[in-house]
Every structure is written in structure tokens, then in C-alpha cells.
Amino acid sequence: MKHTKSIFILVTLFTIISHPISAQTAEHPRPREKANRQIIDCLKITQAAVTDMNNDGKINCIDYAETFKGVWDSRYYSGNCEIVRNYNKNGTFHHLFIRVCDYPDYLTPTWYYVEPHASNISKYLMEENWSYKQYNPAFNIYGETRSWMENVKMNVPRFTTSN
Fold first, then answer.
1. Which terminal residue of the chain has fewer beta carbons within 10 Å of its beta carbon, N or C?
2. What's the rounded mean pLDDT across residues 132-143?
3. Alpha carbons 19 and 21: distance in angstroms, whole number
4. What is the 3-state secondary structure (H, E, C) of the chain?
5. What is the pTM of this model?
6. Measuring CA to CA, which residue among 33, 145, 27 is closest to residue 85?
């Protein structure tokens, strides 16, 4: 009986160590159908209507992230969408993108990291658009959405897509 208990503890520890759960939530490769439709809907609108949201004379990841956030907030619950900054301190990557929350089991939040400037809107996850060498999730910075949206000229499109 003593050996059985020891084996159970070792197997449990191995499972926990080899399958870590992220600090935010458990991660899944693809959102369920409803969240996937919402993300694609916002991507279509964002990519068709992105403008220089912060008046810096450029259209870049800042404008795509701010546009996506504005579109999402006009259509869905704003608490399920956040702007994320990834700042790789070795200077190889400094990028703004989106994370969207879904509740597949209606209890546990699951976050999906979305590239709002994805060239193929059916492949919008950050991992599908950037290599791990470029995009390392360990450098994600959260909690800056309000500051990014403060100076935006709020001309966010509120139309729907044909799908």
C-alpha cells in the first residue's frame, strides 16, 4: 500500500510539472465556434476600416489593436477583450495585439491571443503569425488597455459584416 501511494504522488507531480497551467488560465489551441465567429467578425471590420487611431501619421499594430478593441466593445462584452503589449527586452519584438476571453465550460476563462493585422483571418492566433523567437508570451504586459484607448479618436466603425 505504501508503494502505491508513492507512485500515485509521483505520477501526480509529473502530470502537474509536465502540463503546467498558465498564470492566467488554461490555454486551448482554438476558440469554440461562438468566440471564433466573434473574433473573425471583428477582424473583418477592423481590417476594412483601420485608420490612424492615435494620430501619429502611421497605421501599425497600435491602430489595429485599438480599432479591434473599439469594434469589439461596440458589439460584445468589453471585459472579454484586452489590448496586450509584448515587449521583448532584447529588442527583437515590441508589439500590440489583442486577447479575447471565452468561457468554454461557462466557469473557467480561456484567453486567446489575436493578431488583429493577420493576413489570413482564419489564422489569427499570435502563434500562427509570429515565431516563438519573435513572439515570446513571457514578455506579455497586461492592464494597459485603458491607457492605450485614452487618446484614441473614437471613430470606431459600428457596421456588420456580411457573414
1. N
2. 92
3. 7
4. CHHHHHHHHHHHHHHHHHCCCCCCCCCCCCCCHHHHHHHHHHHHHHHHHCCCCCCCCCCCHHHHHHHHHHHHHHHCCHHHEEEEEEEECCCCEEEEEEEEEECCCCCCCEEEEECCCCCCCCCCEHHHHCCCCCCCHHHEECCCHHHHHHCCCCCCCCCCCCC
5. 0.76
6. 145
